[in-house]
Amino acid sequence: MKVITANFVTCAVKDCKTSAASFPLHFHDAELEMQEIDFQPEFIRNVIPRIDWEGLRVTANELGFPSLPDSKPEGKALEDERTLKDLHRLLLETQVMEGRLVCGNCGHQYAIKEGIANFLLPSHLV
Amino acid sequence: MLPTPDTSHVSFDTIYEPSEDSYLFLDTLSSESESKWLSERFQKTNSDSLGHENNNSVPLVVEAGTGSGVVLAFAAAHSQKIFGRQDILTLGVDVNRNACLATRETVATAIKTNQIPTTDSGAPNLHTIHISSVTADLCTSLRPGSVDVLLFNPPYVPTEELPRLPTAAENDPATVQGLSRSAKFESESFFLSLTYAGGADGMETTNRLLDAVPGVLSSRGVAYVLLCKQNRPEEVKEVIRGWGGWNAETVGSSGMKAGWEKLVIVRIWRQGSDR
């Protein structure tokens, strides 16, 4: 799974939906793999508007990436190739192959194996 | 006609083999009328002078219940024709881990075949990025308001019982490896039943998906859901219109056949969100 996925998923437990602590899920013991993808500044510029920036900052920090800017790049900052390249690398080229995603609200752990995260719940949580 | 994604690598022991319903999905998304509608909704705009939400933002296309991945791969590989742009993100969801693995490959192959130039002559193109295939139940793991296009070809066959959901453990490759021959057969039959068995009126799973639609779609979001005649599509559309503020229209149909499995595809979107 590409790192950007963490920006679009949340805890599958119903009661966690209303809790701010359930997003983003937290990476634990993540094993990363890089997959090279042609750098397309336009693509990244069009991805940025739909990113939850605070959530991404948390994710980047947990995966050991250099700190992202405090606020989402806008206007002139979207022309800065360094920023766009960093985001390209983090969001699209970095894949989490093994590890866990953990909910900050209920503590449930979702395993990631061979790049596939498993969000199915045990029956008592459905 | 746009090429159908290759699924020759997929083992259909536990995965639904692309069939008439899958192909109706491909034909509907790529039809003149539907691709025009979608392209107008998602195409890039040059000016943002009125201060509207930046529509250049890449759409996130999600399929619930991908199976082999043939539908999502088709949308990914032909995004220019269907959505009027090369740059989209795709995410696949299925309760069967094998289907997730299959989908990942089907989508990657289709993008490579159709969107990435093989020679050095062309400049690198913008192309679809498949961000992940995840094992999950419908939309339960998706962040609210995040999905722009939701595709669903449900288990729509009326059955006496609705199969239960698989557990995380049943999807663990280590568990599957340890199964006896008969237990393996039973497990495969169970996963296959999930691909078609829809419970009462064939609607039990579809109704759960529909319940999630208003929460999971973005403001410009749209869902496509396939229904068979026994699902009573006209009633389903009335229910959706009764949500308040939502439209539902039939935008594809398997045609004149009188068989019980006459199929339609319904488009669901917010009223007043036409552009």
UniProtKB/TrEMBL annotation, chain A:
UniProt keyword annotation of Cytoplasm present: yes
Keyword Cytoplasm: yes
Subcellular compartments: Cytoplasm; Nucleus
Keywords from the UniProt entry: Cytoplasm, Nucleus
GO molecular function annotations of the record: protein heterodimerization activity
GO biological process, one term: rRNA (guanine-N7)-methylation
Source organism, top-level taxon: Eukaryota
Cellular component, GO, one term: nucleus
Family assignment from sequence similarity: Belongs to the TRM112 family.
Protein's recorded name: Multifunctional methyltransferase subunit trm112
Native source organism of the sequence: Penicillium chermesinum
UniProtKB/TrEMBL annotation, chain B:
Keyword Electron transport: no
Highest taxon above the source species: Eukaryota
Positions of transmembrane segments: none
Keyword entries, A-Z: Methyltransferase, S-adenosyl-L-methionine, Transferase
PROSITE patterns the record matches: N6_MTASE
UniProt record, GO biological process: methylation
One term under GO cellular component: eRF1 methyltransferase complex
Matching InterPro entries: DNA_methylase_N6_adenine_CS, Euk-Arch_PrmC-MTase, SAM-dependent_MTases_sf
MF annotations from Gene Ontology: nucleic acid binding; protein methyltransferase activity; S-adenosylmethionine-dependent methyltransferase activity
Record carries keyword S-adenosyl-L-methionine: yes
The family this protein is said to belong to: Belongs to the eukaryotic/archaeal PrmC-related family.
Protein name per the record: Methyltransferase
